[in-house]
Amino acid sequence: MATRRFTNDLPPDPDLMGNQAANAPPTPPAAQPRPAAAPAQKPTSRSGGAAHMPRTLTQVINEANERVIQGDLVDYVPMSTGFDPLDGFIGGGLRKTELILLGGAQGIGKTIATLQIARNIAMRPDQYAFYLSYEHTETHLMHRLLCMESVNPPEIDISRGIKLRDLYQIIVAERAKGFMGRDNGPAGSLQAILRENPKTAPALQRMSRYSDRMILVKASPAVTTLKAIKEMTARLCDATGGNVTVFVDYLQKIAVYPERPRDENDKVTIIVEGLKDIALSLDVPVWSIVAADREGLKSKRIHLFHLRGSSALDYESDIAIIMNNKYHILSKDHVAFNPYTAKQFRDWVVFTVEKNRAGRAMQDMEFQLYGQHFAFDPRGQKVQQQLIDDKVIES
């Protein structure tokens, strides 16, 4: 199949972006542009233009040299995901121009892990997380973050944790007091309720540390196209000096227009090539969730080739991580397997780095999931037990 090209210098399409105007990410208030190098060698815009003009190797070296002189080392320092030992296996974290894919079955925790990693990046005072969700509203993601912050990863203090149901009950109960004339506290706004309640106040305070750098968009499978994503990301790059990481939840939901894919695999090929183009042309990391196909959902253990449109996903991605429930993929033939003790692994998820252009692939690590609090304990470890597929990971 011929490789499609996604140009960077097209003007915005008003018909295409009309429905996206309300969802356009705001310009971050604290954004500080990166220092510019020599005008003749620095790309005029991250959204296109001189970034794709031919340059000699001397020009490339001079541009890189100027950035280092000015203390701009973002091209050399990876951004930690906050998940250890995942960072160690992928070279220290996420890097610009890379496309990272996260796959697995429904309910395994892909959104939980992705939103938590976005939060970890936004916690850095110089970085912004751009999270596009085709599955959840911005308000629902905010509620999830509050539940996650209540256990405060990596501390994971379950005794202070709140669940989504608890959060809703707190809000409804406090508003009911106001309606009944028994509101002795604040005016009853959401922020006032969260600030005054001892269970939610610490979570709200922690969330406020990065709320200005976490940019959320409720994407639409009908109108949020690759072009729309690219234009929004380009504006954020211009506003933040390029210090943006893009998160997409999830890949197969991205609208394809005006392309007319022949089938599902062709659509996935168009999308994954477009996401890789965004990473390369805008000089940002792109992290995307990917759904498994029907055969993958039937298998005991999901692999990269079980993802919908797997050939293009494998070719275009720089890093591919597959999530599986540990209990389901423990080898029953292992001499140490005990069905009673194995139940303790139901809340553990195995992350397998199945593709890794910068290091070793087929590395297994495990993290404990606290699903009711929408959080992983990011302090993971290498898998010690034998898994199905006759894979044994030694310490």
Short description:
This protein has about 400 residues and is α/β, with parallel strands linked by helices.
Polypeptide structure, described:
- The chain is of the alpha/beta class.
- The chain has one domain (96-392): 3-Layer(aba) Sandwich (Rossmann fold), CATH 3.40.50.300.
- It has helices spanning 14-17, 57-69, 86-89, 110-122, 138-151, 164-179, 190-196, 201-208, 226-240, 264-282, 294-298, 310-316, 326-329, and strands at 99-104, 128-133, 214-218, 244-249, 286-291, 319-325, 348-356, 363-370, 375-376, 381-382, 386-387, 391-392.
- Strands 1, 2, 3, 4, 5, 6, 7, 8, 9 and 10 form a 10-stranded mixed beta sheet that branches. Strands 11-12 form a two-stranded antiparallel ribbon.
- The radius of gyration is 22 Å and the shape is globular.
| Helix-and-strand structural type | alpha/beta
Order of helix and strand elements from N to C terminus: HHHEHEHHHHEHEHEHHEHEEEEEE
What is the CATH topology descriptor? Answer: Rossmann fold
Give the total of domains: 1
* CATH H-level homologous superfamily name: P-loop containing nucleotide triphosphate hydrolases
Q: Give the low-confidence spans.
A: 1-22, 31-50, 390-395
CATH-scheme architecture: 3-Layer(aba) Sandwich
Output the radius of gyration: 22 Å
First and last CA, distance: 42 Å
How many DSSP H or I helices? 13
The biggest sheet, with number of strands, parallel, antiparallel or mixed sense and barrel status, is:
10 strands, mixed
Count of strand segments: 12
Any idea of the CATH class?
Alpha Beta
